[in-house]
Amino acid sequence: MDELLLLEAVERYLKGEMSAQERAFFEEIRKNDPSVDQAVVEHTFLFHELDKQANIKAYKHTLYEVEGMLAEEGIITKAQLNGKAKVAFLWKKYKRNIAVAASIAGLMSVASAGLIIAYTKKVSDSNKEDLVAIP
């Protein structure tokens, strides 16, 4: 429960929701306890990263909106991929993955064939003759 209270206090501290007395008390605790200071630093970093991600998402959303608006007005046209271009695109994108998968499949087939040959019981010709002679 103390962990939750600490996290709540850190968030209130960073958002500026504490009174002057609470803020002074929290800063004193922060100076004396390195774990609290570390929590404040981590939350500050987290908030900055979340803000950056929100800005990137808003920027991409704006780009898609503008592109859609320009396409509706006929100022720009979206290029449509035909079948061959899509296959070539996928081949270029996944060429390495396909090569690795094919290599692993080839090695496994060679290894399994080798193991089958190695562990198959060798039947000599005399044993075959004995089996054939039994009526």
Structural class determined from secondary elements: mainly alpha
List the total number of helices.
5
- Oligomerization: single chain
Please count the beta strands (DSSP E, at least 2 residues each): 0
Give a short account of the largest sheet: none
Termini, distance in Å? 84 Å
Q: What can you tell me about this protein's structure?
A:
This protein is an all-alpha fold and 135 residues long. It has two domains: 1-78; 81-135. Helix content is 84%, strand content 0%. The protein has five helices and no strands. Helix 2 packs across helix 3 (34-73). The longest helix is centred in the middle third of the chain and has 40 residues, at 34-73.
Descriptors:
0% strand; 84% helix; flat; 135 residues; mainly alpha; single chain; 5 helices; 2 domains
Which helices and strands, and how do they pair?
Layout (H helix, E strand, L loop, with lengths): L1 H14 L4 H13 L1 H40 L9 H37 L5 H9 L2
Helix pairs in contact: 1-3, 2-3
Summarize the structure.
The protein is mostly helical. Helices cover about 85% and strands about 0% of the residues.
